[in-house]
Amino acid sequence: MEPPECPVCLQSYDGESTLPRVLSCGHTACEECLTNIPKKFPDTIRCPACTVLVKFPPQGPSALPKNIDLLRLFPSSSNPTPDSTRNSKNSSFEFVTRSWPDEFHAAWKDRVLLLDVSVEREGSTESASSSRLCGCLNKGDGDGDGDSKVSLLRVGSFQRRDDGCDSVFEFSYLLRMISCLWGMEEGERDELDVIMRVEERGVSKVFGLWGDLKSGVLYLVGQKLTDFSLEEFEDISEDDASCLAVIGMQLCEALLSLHKDGIFVGCLSVSCVKFDEFGNAFVDLIELLETGRNVYGLISEETSSCSKPVGALEMGLVLKRLVENGIFVSFEVLFELLKKQNLLITQASSECMVACSSDVLPVCVLLLMLLGGKQFSEELIESVSGVDAKECEEKSEDLLVLYTGLMEKLSYILESKLSGKFKSMVGILRQCCCLDPQTRPVLTDLWKCNRELIMNHRLSSMFALEKKKPRKRKEFCLVLGELCRLVVVGSKELEEDLPGMESGDGAEEGKLDKDFVGRLSEGKIKSKDLRGHQDSVTGLAVGGGFLFSSSLDKNIHVWSLKDFSHVHTFKGHQDKVTALIYIKGVETVCVSGDGGGGIFVWSTSFPLEEQPLRKWYEPKDWRYSGIHALAYSEDGYVYSGSGDNTIKAWSLQDGKLVCTMTGHKSVVSTLVVLNGVLYSGSWDGTVRLWSLSDHSFLTVLGEETQGIVKSILSLAADEGTLVAAYQNGDIQIWRDDTSMKSMQIQSSAILSVALNGKWLFTGGWDRTVNIQELSGDEISLECTHVGSIPGSSVVTSLLYWEGKLFAGFADKIIKVYYSGR
């Protein structure tokens, strides 16, 4: 049998090269390993076996005693097991059963505009025929100059807070938006992802996503630029050729940029072209999506009363309506769109490929619209009407025939209207009107044609348009995409096409109490009020099948955990009860402390007695405010945090004072025992660590910085995580005594904090129980607001136990939130 070995390097102890040394916690490791263990704080190391912080002599491991007995042992008497004080709780409960992975949350959370970045609508009503709104993006800095005009496009819907849900829980704004996004079809999310990544020259900006909590609508928020009207392009002369050419170049550049991102639009309208303050032309992404939806809407209106497939009459009406609305759609795009809606007969025409060349025809018609102004628009509408009437007489059902007639009219207008400097554009514009996308010129050729109107051929040849390969992304046509199918017809919205979030969406069934917050959101968590105290509740503890509650009314109430009925009242305190703990040791007792310095021990065995088993008092001094916090260690000591700035260790057996620990500069307001260490929080803003083995001071966390003191009001610990709550609404989180996160989560004092695994509960002066989710690793930590539970008064104490959340309030009430199943 092999001899015992070091738990770090796994080398067998031999008394020479691998010499066992005993730490104060009782565990053993070899000298070399103890020397190399990182020391975060002076004269302390973390035991490699039980992870408890222990004193380490300045002289090194040689000053520690040898484990002579261990050298004589065989494996039948193996190394000590980890310290019994190590947290042996069951795995933490999964409060929010989310259907989306962490990677999804990380990918979308920064794209959601937070509530303090407000979007205010312009105007009092939303147009029934449009899913787009205008608004104002307020950056929350209080400076009016920081506002930006924005466009809003509806992309999803979620449940409003006033929709009649019985839930006492409210998901956080961010989580509701993430849930809405997760409820979308994958195609819709993919398109949103691509659109929100666009940062190209000549394309309007997309700021992010914003949820209107009043209407339950998720909007895509984009930059709002200056509109223009066709009247501004009336009476265009040759002197304006350069200006129009610049606009043409900028439109081509914008679309070429979108092509690099895998987006081709397939249709354009006059409303898609916007200008900035310098007169530069932009393509508006929000307006492009709205135009695509208008195409769907117009087709639905014109074909809703017709049998399928539709004929030339309906197709002619569709074309006319599109042109009247200033929308220009490539033949192959409209064909595919109609075919997707089963509006064409199978033999109507051969299938055409929709690609980047599908943007050439809409750009061509749009440029002609700018060149010809309103008169050109009227002639084009008249041409469409003429084609429609002609083909209806022949009863043709082929969309190709209609488009051919329209293109012939367009070519005629080109040759008859364009002259002078614009004459050079006739040839390429005629080619752009070709129905076959394979024979159309590319956008770069159209760009060059516009450029030649500005500079001569010799100079223009100096600037070669570099052909860039498109990024490796899935290509899609915007108007044929999923986002454009969110159609609004008149005042009736096609809700079946809207991605929504039903109450409790994404929650798994059969989780019982483990899905606590998930049940809250579904309205499946019941809330029960426990009434009986005559003043503010100050403490909560659970044990032996009971809930214990203390109050400023000087009493301790005992409640049954089975039906939450009142069982008993402990009486005897002469001062307000300020602290309460439950101890399961040699004897099961409840220990309470009061403002007069009294510590009372109550038996929790039947029959329950009104009077305490024993009691004692710390030295009374009118200058101090008695007991503020209590904690217990398995060594049999009760620790009290006092108004005299000290921590005292008392023997539970007889109440004798064992030790007084000093160092804090103000009231010791909270105590926590974890992994062989006592953590004490104080109004001086620091957390001090004390060894439970000899009550020696180990180190201090959160020391005063630049004279700023934030009083610590509550501590919570679980596994290796420690959370401190402050009077200004801040929390600070440590893992393995290393500071990981400091942030403000409330606007006022946090009076109580509870921690269970990755779920953090906080409550205080804002009268709300807030729930945060902790995630990350040993390098970084994230704290995400999950949701909240509105309370009736100031939250004074919190406790989570076995699927139940207990909250004590200043209005004398204790609320229990539990699963109704």
UniProtKB/TrEMBL annotation:
- PROSITE patterns on file: WD_REPEATS_2, WD_REPEATS_REGION, ZF_RING_2
Identify the keywords attached in UniProt to this record, alphabetized: Metal-binding, Repeat, WD repeat, Zinc, Zinc-finger
> By its UniProt entry, which Gene3D superfamilies does this protein fall under?
YVTN repeat-like/Quinoprotein amine dehydrogenase, Zinc/RING finger domain, C3HC4 (zinc finger)
Q: Which SUPFAM superfamilies match?
A: Protein kinase-like (PK-like) (SSF56112), RING/U-box (SSF57850), WD40 repeat-like (SSF50978)
Where do transmembrane segments lie in this chain?
A: none
**Pfam families, per database record:** WD40, zf-RING_UBOX
- Protein name (Swiss-Prot/TrEMBL): RING-type domain-containing protein
Q: What is the lineage of its organism?
A: Eukaryota, Viridiplantae, Streptophyta, Embryophyta, Tracheophyta
